[in-house]
Amino acid sequence: MKYFIIAGEASGDLHASNLMASIKKNDGSAEFRFLGGDLMSAQGGEMVKHYKEMAFMGIIPVLLHARTVLANIKQCKQAILDYQPDVLILVDYPSFNLKMAQFVKENMPSVPVYYYISPKLWAWKEYRLKSIRKYVDKVFSILPFEVKWFGERGYTVDYVGNPCVDAVEARRHKDEPREAFEARTGVAGKPIIGLLAGSRVQEIRSSLPIMLEAASYYKDYQMVVAGVKSVDPSVYEPILKNYDAKIIYDETYELLQQSEMAIVCSGTATLETALLRVPQVVVYMISGGWLVHRFLELFIRVPYISLVNLIADKWVVKELVSENFTVGKVRAEIDRLRTEACRNQMLKDYDELIELLGHESASDRAANAMWKALREKTVRP
After folding, report:
1. Extended strands (E) in the chain
2. Residue 231 is part of a domain; what is its CATH number?
3. Do 157 and 251 have their domain in common?
4. What is the mean pLDDT of residues 61-78?
């Protein structure tokens, strides 16, 4: 069969590439065309557009690059028409992907549309559920609480497990001793505080200086930043120059498994940190300060911002957001994370979270469910 897949960010490239590998287990003649990245390219097929040319987040960047965004939409629509796929698979990236779902259903109504890693409607923009009902045939959820959330609103989704579990389990250097890590990276000596400042330039510039200033107080630890290769070193250099901190690129899992604790910018990394059983404090700086934060609270429908707390449905990790993300409050939380009682309780909560997510391969479960649905469609009279 012919699969058209759209992933608009680095994380989507990772999870879509794993899904492609799982699809090939069922469909030996699978053909792929996609918007994605290098990991998807490694699975074969034809890339229409790299996600690096599409990753505009927020109202202002989108407006500033409106001509590029519109061109990307037009190019994607034409690529779908030219390819005539048997199925369209959307991976996260809702602003773009829901437009593609509508286009396919209006122009190629017989082509099923599947959503893997659905939009976080439970947090905000619940109005998008109307588009999903109308244009998406099946949603394959990676968060267990979404089954209930969607179900209460009359839409059935399939929980297939979380791909972060797969990614963490398949990480490089999984059982690497500390000595080997030190020899390979040059990070040696004192216990590590891992600093995960996100993968977007704006996140890094707003969060990393506060992280460094807070962690620099603890002279019995060393600060190590999880760098991202897709971000130019010139973004990190002026922030790091005044601190005794190291940076290692694209080795987040390897860094975490050697860290005593971590300061983590809210996002998928908070869940990955929990899966690797590293005590953490979650932080996030909202552009515009406390006034924008108060305004956004009128629209955000959930009590937590971190995936760890959302999935556990309770306070497992501390969240410091916007005006609460200060050097003093981060230090207070580091002090708490250094106590045995706090660490033990957090690790216990992590273990419960891991059991809740399950241990089966999310990519395999999603691919199997998609294959079954596609087979049923092709044999239906």
Report:
1. 2-7, 31-36, 46-50, 87-91, 113-116, 138-141, 158-159, 192-196, 222-227, 245-249, 259-265, 280-284, 318-321
2. 3.40.50.2000
3. no
4. 73
Q: Is 192 helix (H, G, I), strand (E, B) or coil?
A: strand
Q: Which residues have C-beta within 8 Å of that of residue 355, sequence separation ≥ 6? A: none
Strand partners, 261: 193
Q: What is the pLDDT of residue 55?
A: 56
Distance CA 166, CA 188 (A): 29
Residues whose CB is less than 8 angstroms from the CB of residue 120 and which lie 6 or more positions away in sequence, other chains included? none
Q: Are 207 and 236 in contact (CB under 8 A)?
A: no
Domain that holds residue 245: 168-357
Q: Are 116 and 161 in contact (CB under 8 A)?
A: no
In this structure, of 48-62, 164-178, 270-284, the range with the lowest mean pLDDT score is 48-62
Residue 381, pLDDT score:
38
What is the sign of the dihedral through the CA atoms of 83, 87, 92 and 93? positive
CA dist., res. 55 & res. 73, Å (int) = 13
Length of the chain: 381
Query: Do 15 and 145 lie in a common domain?
Result: yes
Which amino acid makes up residue 367?
Answer: A
pTM (whole model) above 0.90: no
**At residue 288, does pLDDT exceed 70?**
no
Per the structure, how many domains does the chain have? Answer: 2
Residue 365 and residue 349 share a domain? no
Residue of 231, 233, 212 whose CA lies nearest to 223: 212
336: Cα within 13 Å, side-chain hemisphere: 15
pLDDT attached to residue 52: 81
Q: What is the mean pLDDT of residues 5-14?
A: 90
